[in-house]
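In response to reviewer comment 3 from the previous cycle, which asked for concrete evidence that the modeling workflow produces usable outputs, we include below a single protein chain processed end to end. The sequence was submitted unchanged, and the resulting structure tokens are shown without manual editing.
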Amino acid sequence: MVGPVPDFDRQWAVTAQQELGRQIAEAMPRVMATKVVLDVAADPFAAQGGQGYGRPAEGAQARQGMDAAFGAIREADLASYGVPSGKPGWLLPVIVGVLALVLGGAVTLVVMTR
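The workflow returned the following structure tokens.
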């Protein structure tokens, strides 16, 4: 089953869009109501019954240390290296140069045609 309707992957090409919409709308509450409950056994590193590899205070300190370490990495990842913050300094000279070439070409054409 690919979609919320049985055999959806085989029938979608030959079924009218309105019928597909109706089938999906009927199946949506059933599909969305399904919840997966994870048990503590799903996380092998979870402390069971308040017992773990250290006391809770040590675990909190270790977590704060890891948050601080990875916080610096997150900030470095979000930094915008090489992204210009404004207009580049070479833009105005290029525009002036192009305008000078166009104006010079126009003046040359006018002089040459007389």
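The CA atoms of residues 87 and 93 lie 12 Å apart. We consider this sufficient to address the reviewer's concern, and the full set will be provided in the supplementary archive.
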